[in-house]
Specification:
about 250 residues; 6 helices; about 25% strand
Length: about 250
């Protein structure tokens, strides 16, 4: 299917903030979200619209280059606590300015656009991104893979949205290990096919009969610890960034 670009207002949203839908069914369902967002925004003035990501400094200095296994531990800590795959509460210090994201349904550019996109897509009261593991991928060069369980609701479709049958996601972070040490690309993969995800959301009575069963609960794990000192490059980056300022950013 040909990709379709959809966004809230074609006359106001710059091209860099366009979200490209690669799946026709997702494109059609997203129209409901776009329509409801336009109606909600029309009922409020610009001053009345709260910014859910107002606490994030998207211009913060980037982290200095660290070993990829240390970066994996840092991301594990952050994702375990912030679940930004659904909350959008990203930490921009890990991501290159040219960062790009894609999954089987969506493609976009920029870490701010990614954060705002997932925050807008997922119901913040019910959605979870429970982190199972964050590890350097030994089969993919310069890649950190996060395994996590998605559940909750998405704000697309009629009514108050669609309930997600829990399933396992694999997020691959491509890291510029030979240069900046930052994440330049993210791709999400799922453990079940797209048709299973869509049918289960639209027709939940098919779950376990025509479609697969929900993913089991995530096993209890020890809370990850943010690495400190060992193996971390404390030399300032081009922006005068060092380990002290980095830790302040991490714990904001």
């Amino acid at each position: 299917n040909r990709a379709t670009k959809l966004f809230a207002n074609e006359n106001e949203v710059p091209p860099s903030q366009e979200m490209e839908y690669k799946n026709l069914a997702t494109s059609i369902l997203s129209n409901f979200m776009q329509k409801e967002d336009r109606e909600a925004n029309d009922s409020k003035s610009n001053e009345d619209v709260d910014d859910p990501l107002a606490n994030i400094d998207f211009k913060a200095p980037k982290i200095s280059n660290v070993p990829i296994d240390t970066l994996a531990s840092m991301l594990d800590y952050e994702l375990y606590n912030k679940e930004w795959f659904v909350t959008g509460q990203v930490n921009p210090i890990y991501f290159a300015d040219e960062f790009e994201f894609q999954d089987p349904d969506v493609k976009l550019s920029g870490i701010e656009e990614y954060g705002r996109g997932v925050n807008k897509l997922f119901d913040q009261k019910t959605s979870r991104a429970e982190i199972i593991s964050t590890e350097v991928n030994t089969n993919m060069e310069d890649t950190i893979t996060v395994t996590w369980r998605l559940s909750g609701k998405v704000k697309i479709g009629p009514g108050d949205g669609l309930t997600i049958k829990p399933y396992i996601c694999y997020t691959d972070f491509k890291v510029d290990t030979k240069g900046s040490g930052l994440v330049t690309f993210q791709e999400d993969r799922f453990d079940i096919p797209q048709w299973d995800i869509l049918l289960s959301a639209l027709f939940p009575f098919l779950i376990g009969k025509v479609t697969s069963n929900p993913a089991p609960p995530v096993p209890v794990r020890d809370a990850p610890i943010m690495p400190k000192g060992d193996g971390i490059d404390t030399s300032p980056s081009d922006g005068g960034f060092n380990i002290g300022s980095m830790m302040k950013q991490l714990f904001n």
